Amino acid sequence: MNTIFSFTGAGKIVFGNGSFEQLVEHIRNLGGKKPLIVLDKNLSLSGLKEKVSDYFKKAGMGIVIFDKVEGEPPLELADEGATAAADGKCDIVVGIGGGSTMDVAKAVAVITANKGKAEDYLGLNKVPGPGLPTIIVPTTAGTGSEVTFTSVFIRKDLNKKEGMNSPYLYPDIALLDPELTLSIPSKVTATTGVDALCHAIESYTSITASPMSEMVSLEAIALISESLRTCVHNGADLEARGQMLLGSLYAGLGLANAGVTAVHSLSYPLGGMYGIPHGLANTLLLPAVMNYNLPGALEKFAIIAEVMGEPIDDLSLNEAAGLAVGAVENLIDDCGIYDTLETLGIPEEDFPKLAEAAMTVARPLANNPRMVTAGDAIEIYSDAY
Fold this sequence. Notes:
Elements: E1 12-15, H1 23-29, E2 35-40, H2 41-59, E3 64-69, H3 76-87, E4 92-97, H4 99-114, E5 123-124, E6 134-138, E7 150-155, E8 160-165, E9 173-176, H5 186-205, H6 211-233, H7 238-258, H8 262-274, H9 278-293, H10 298-307, H11 317-334, H12 351-359, H13 362-367, H14 374-383
Parallel strand pairs: 1-9, 2-3, 2-4, 4-6, 5-8, 6-9
Antiparallel strand pairs: 7-8
Helix pairs in contact: 3-4, 5-6, 5-7, 5-9, 6-7, 8-9, 8-12, 9-11, 10-11, 12-14
């Protein structure tokens, strides 16, 4: 409590059933007259494009739709979106979709306003100034990108993931409507949900956590562990969807303020080299990294176990902490996620190459409650195999 800490996030958070209907009002309040609407390609084909177009037509507002976003988006997509915004003389960016869509929208806003290229802004604090006003509307409960300062992309030329990290990437408004998550398929619900849990656990155990970040991260763990199973197996349960989306939001706030840990360092190469979706990669590695990290944060892992419903009374600290790993493994199993590195075809002989790449994702490793070497990373990949 004697350390100095800060807590940041999106400029404004709006949450609630039906809150999407206020989107035009929020756009006008930010001075927007012609938004660029960034959409996921698959969601656009499923009818979201028509729904969005009709919504703005009724409101009498002209829009430009950029609906080329795909999972694990390539860096070039951000530049394409910025070109569309400039050509359309758009003055505000609205991202509607999952983590990839939200990341692209945030990047498009800063690229358009700063007249640069996406490659110029990769890394920490490389964005020179504010972007266009941005409103982010998640349709999945997973990445928490609606309240973070990060946009992550695939560098196809380098077979790796890289991110933009800047306070200028924080959205002006995060608009969260649980009703938009009702149509998420169960498999996507499962992997994005465990991704959110991963953010919560990593930010809670991060060595840079603060009392405020710990509070939201721990509440995220509770909300997600209570609601994710229901969302996967009964996706029409709006109350559970709302709890899950709130948990994802809290996890995103924890991530933005305390950072993530070794799970993300080890998962990035899986996405960059093999195209494994981010949420699934984190899901596969989370139990193995937790097991490795136990000695570095026994007290916190014991609290995680208790929050996830494990009986820890009369147990030693080591025993109680170990139950956290089992609780996460049970949740993953109950959500029907049975993939491993082996079933996905990741060869064991590639583990040294993966570990070498993971060591370059330095910021999450610096937050980890236990030092990780390349040799340790190989052992973690083996544990997840």
